[in-house]
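Whiteboard transcription, Tuesday session. T.W. wrote the structure tokens on the left side:
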């Protein structure tokens, strides 16, 4: 009984995954804004639960389930390849049929892909799964592909009024079985389907020459330390940290896809009476090459700040100008988005910060 909902459950996983019309431009987004300012990375956990009834009209029988949940993980968060993932567990409960007690088994779990982004919404296609169901001695096998609509929001939702193709079974099994199901995605939340900002073919270069003649490779270590105080004007307080550092590693050196990497450590110290912590260090991307310079975006991080009993969490995307040279530098006079906290917390909060890049050195941003 517990297995027939695999398809819709898998669909829920896909929902959490954020869709994209062009696979090369789709990401999992935390905010309803295009281009996406803060993305969910590979490994993001997916959880979804049925909000109504799951109804499959299989010809010989109509099977209804009123309880269902799913868990999975994103394996490709985009934007250079289609957003996709797998289902690790799923469940179905309270299933019935007017034609008798149904028995359902999952033969193959399948996979999903995402497409057609539009104003935070999109579609996903569930493929490669196989489910066999039987009632009163009649058995049928149904599977993918099946398409669901995705509606992004603080709690994203998934809805199908499509149908499942019959893969095998008797003549009484509907060749195309209509499926009606709706889900609410509890994690990640919020979740939107957005397009990633376009990028040029970029590489990290050891010399100031375009096109670049000598590039830095995958695994290159990035290290930067503050050259002035980190200042966040958070509304309820102006928070200053005299020392700030970050360290990461290049995972995609370009030119196929944006130059990007992971941040392994992000630290703040000497912040006076304020407390500044790090929940998620996030990732980075580098683009917009121009005469050896470019942009540096710190993404997906979360920093809680507190002073005198008031707390806020800021994160999302922090954009820096990157000035290439024998010792490259980063500078931000932008702002950070509030992800949670008191109404006293400014949203957004203006940020002033400057860094010296000690590794790699020299560093220039050039076109491939």
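and on the right, the sequence the group agreed on:
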């Amino acid at each position: 009984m517990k297995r027939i909902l695999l398809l819709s459950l898998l669909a829920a996983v896909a929902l959490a995954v954020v869709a994209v019309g062009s696979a090369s431009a789709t990401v999992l987004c935390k905010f309803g804004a295009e281009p996406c300012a803060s993305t969910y990375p590979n490994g993001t956990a997916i959880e979804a639960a049925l909000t109504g009834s799951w109804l499959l009209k299989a010809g010989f029988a109509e099977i209804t389930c009123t309880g269902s949940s799913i868990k999975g993980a994103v394996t490709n968060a985009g934007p250079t390849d289609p957003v996709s993932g797998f289902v690790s567990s799923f469940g179905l409960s309270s299933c019935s049929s007017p034609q008798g007690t149904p028995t359902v088994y999952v033969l193959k779990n399948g996979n999903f892909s995402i497409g057609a982004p539009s104003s935070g919404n999109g579609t996903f296609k569930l493929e490669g799964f196989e489910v066999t169901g039987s009632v009163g001695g009649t058995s049928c096998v149904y599977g993918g592909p099946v398409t669901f609509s995705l509606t992004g929001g603080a709690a994203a939702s998934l809805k199908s009024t499509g149908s499942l193709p019959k893969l095998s079974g008797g003549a009484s099994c509907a060749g195309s079985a209509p499926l009606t199901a709706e889900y609410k995605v509890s994690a990640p939340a919020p979740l939107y389907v957005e397009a990633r900002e376009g990028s040029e073919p970029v590489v990290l270069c050891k010399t100031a020459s375009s096109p670049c003649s000598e590039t830095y490779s995958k695994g290159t270590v990035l290290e930067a330390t503050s050259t002035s105080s980190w200042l966040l004007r958070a509304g309820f307080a102006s928070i200053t940290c005299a020392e700030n550092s970050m360290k990461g590693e290049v995972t995609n050196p370009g030119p196929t896809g944006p130059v990007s990497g992971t941040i392994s450590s992000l630290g703040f110290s000497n912040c006076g009476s304020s407390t500044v912590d790090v929940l998620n260090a996030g990732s980075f991307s580098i683009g917009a090459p121009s005469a050896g310079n470019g942009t540096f975006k710190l993404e997906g991080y979360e920093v809680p700040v507190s002073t005198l009993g008031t707390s806020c969490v800021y994160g999302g995307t922090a954009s820096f100008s990157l000035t290439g040279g024998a010792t490259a530098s980063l500078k931000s006079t932008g702002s950070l988005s509030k992800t949670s906290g008191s109404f006293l917390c400014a949203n957004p909060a203006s940020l002033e910060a400057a860094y010296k890049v000690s590794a790699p050195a020299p560093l220039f941003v050039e076109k491939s």
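Someone added at the bottom: The chain is about 5% helix and 60% strand.
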